[in-house]
Amino acid sequence: MIIVNARFLTQRVTGVQRFAIEISKVLRVLNDKIVFVAPRNILDMDLAKQLDAITIGKNEGTIWEQVDLRYYLMSKGNPLLINFCNTGILFYNKQIVTIHDMSYKVNPKWFTRQFYLWYNYLIPHIATRSLKIFTVSNSSKKDIIKHLKVSPDKISVIYNSSNLNTNNTFESVNMEKYLLSVSSLDPRKNLNNLIRAFKEIDKDIRLIIVGLKKEKFTLNDDLTSGSHNIIIKNYVSDSELGALMKHAEAFVYLSFYEGFGLPPIEAMSIGCPVLVSDIPAHREICGNAALYANPNNVNDIKNKIISLLNDNALKNELVLAGERNIKRFNWFNSGQSVLKYINEVI
Length: 346
Known about the structure:
By secondary structure, the protein is α/β, with parallel strands linked by helices. It contains 14 helices and 13 strands. The chain has a 7-stranded parallel sheet, sandwiched between helices. It has a 6-stranded parallel sheet with strand order 10-9-8-11-12-13, sandwiched between helices. α1 packs across α14 and α7 (191-199) packs across α12. The protein is elongated.
């Protein structure tokens, strides 16, 4: 018996949940004997029905995961548990965990103290006890080995991909020129420097930032106050996201740290030129299909944005390179790899 921890069905979708959702869809096609188990507070009932998910327990969140899910597994004879979203059950040996990155170790200040302390306790325990670890890039694999002292043989890299609709025709922001950034609104995403650079650009253009606000969000309100050219959207559908990417002058993603960084790949799949921070994960995932900027250097960010806005040849070159690069990533292939590794540990 194989159980998937489907707690992600109760969470708003960011890159971590997107990985869980898309891999789970593939697993459902490849092996209909896999059981998806979730708390009762599911947000997307259509997706839950697609996965034929069952609900158990009375609790939610971490308590559900550590108590209700554990008791359910015990009642089923302790079967193999698959976790896709950075967490797992403490002191449960028969499980596979997915660790997307080591951001909590790279810079604890990006997170609340409560979150940091919990992850600093949880992650090493589940990594040590798990049968296998999935992660989303070789860059992230190196960080896991460095911080958790895990054997490289225990870790398998499973890439993300994009599933945005490239044929969407949604007309966004009345077709006015705009730059787009999509990320969780938290310090690691470096939105303050993006806004500083944007405000130094002497062009009639807007900046649209799409992202869910996190508990410890330090966007400098002084940077956005009084600026009608900066638009912050809390959440958009996949359809609207694809349209925003399709019509943007460029997609800008300047994180200080990433395990993978899904939005730039999504932008490439739509045919949008991409500017990213010069960090290891982006170099691995974007290759020569993106323009790179120093995330700590506002002047460099500004100059790279201006280059994209003024140089149509550069934009076209990046779009074509992006079309080639995106062929490396495929959800079905990733799902097949996950199932292969699952079968190896059963």
